[in-house]
# Entry
Amino acid sequence: MLKISDFELYSIVTGTIALDGGAMYGVVPKVLWSKVEEVDELNRVRIAMRTLLAINKKTGCVMVIDGGAGDKWPQNELDRYAIENRPHAISDTLKRLSVSKESVTDVILTHLHFDHVGGFSYSNERGETLPTFPCARHWIHEGHWRHANAPTERDRASFLKRDLAFLHTSNLLRFVTGDNPEPTLKGVEWFVSNGHTPYMLLPIFKGETFDLMFAGDLIPNANQLNPAWSMSYDLFPLTILSERKEVLKRCLETGMRLAFPHDMKMAGAAVMFDGRRYSVKEALDF
Ligand SMILES: [Zn+2]
# Structure
């Protein structure tokens, strides 16, 4: 657990997924990235799918940020991505903390790629898709919602209709708007990032000694602290380059920490710069 102001934060691994190594590291040659990643026989690297749980006992706010891939997967697709799901990981942590699913007040959808949103819904015996957290407001940037419902041919495979259905039919969606959105949740600022996908919404928890940003797919793991090591999935590589530099500069100047959605080894990190490259100053486990 990590305490930031009145929030208690927990990083929960909801499963792992194997993605093509070339897609994970874009233009970086394998001879370089293979020094920091293990590769399977199909050239895939295994990444974690992490959820950030934030609990404020003073206000009763229980926030779940990103939800993993969920368990609505046919076998052939599970095999394609070698998904190892831990479908009960979030509910097990909530149970351990004596928090019911109905007590979750807010879900934050950084973006709607299947490995971030799938766990927020499930299918019942009648084949209906229902929300995992039925009482939570589901926050998303309005610009990303529009994009996810009309993606390009390049990224449409990342958005699954079965994951978005419940957001269309329930009254749970809440939109954040604009390039510099006003805070809507106490103690949390928004950072809007457009390099990976349009209008990704990243929360920054405001602390007394340091802030913590859930870095989403802007900086998905510690290897990608190198601003140029971006993914082939990033729609706008030059935008992500400048956004990463902006965030990393803020880390150095203010001591802001990052929480990663996809790192296998660490929940987050404090960052350092040696004049040439950024790296992990301190790995955070929470
Ligand atoms: Zn993504």
In short: Residues 2-284 form a domain with the Metallo-beta-lactamase; Chain A fold (CATH 3.60.15.10). Residues 237-254 form the longest helix (18 residues). The longest strand covers residues 7-20. The pocket of zinc ion is lined by residues 111, 113, 196, 217 (CB under 6 Å).
